Amino acid sequence: MSKSHVAELFRRMVFNVLVRNQDDHPRNHGFVVDGADLSLSPAYDIVPGLTRAGVGTHFQLAMSLGDRGREASVANALSRASRFGLSPGEARAITEELIETTREWRTLFGDLGVSDRDVELLTPSSLGSED
User: Fold this and answer.
1) Cα–Cα distance measured from residue 97 to residue 64, given in angstroms and rounded to the nearest whole number
2) More confident site: 48 or 69
3) Are 72 and 61 in contact (CB under 8 A)?
4) 3-state secondary structure at position 11
5) Kind and range of the H or E element at 31?
6) 3-6, long-range: CB within 8 Å, 24+ apart, which pairs?
7) CB of 58 within 8 A of CB of 20?
């Protein structure tokens, strides 16, 4: 698998942290085989987890992410980014881009017709730029 596919796997894992995807597990990361080539499949089964305001927002992924095991945090992901062939600077750039992108989720959901009620239900689950 190419370096870009491995970096994309890191990106997806960080994205899962940021959107609180508590259903992240090995079967949600597929691969496509084309002759001798192996590549990462398109992303699928990414569902934000719900939490209530005032209730703990920390959660764990199904797979180990970094030095603190399955702890779902950007800091934990960055601690082992080298396993994905990324320098500290490359890993930080990816996480900063994803934080900026996910920060605007409310606007995007509104533009796509998600009801104000549903946006409010998801708001406590948003990690935004925490971490």
Assistant:
1) 22
2) 69
3) yes
4) helix
5) strand 31-34
6) 3/85, 5/38, 5/39, 5/40, 6/84, 6/85
7) no
Token pair, residue 75, equals: 């800091």
Is residue 21 classed exposed, middle or buried when 0-12, 13-18 and 19+ CB atoms within 10 A define those classes?
A: buried
Better-scored residue on pLDDT, 50 or 53? 50
Note the pLDDT of residue 93. Answer: 97
Confidence check: pLDDT of 91 > 50: yes
| pLDDT, position 102 | 87
SS3 content of the chain, % helix, strand, coil (to 5): 45, 10, 45
Q: Flag whether pLDDT at 79 surpasses 90.
A: yes
- Cα–Cα distances (Å) from 131 to 64, 85, 102, in that order, read 18, 23, 14
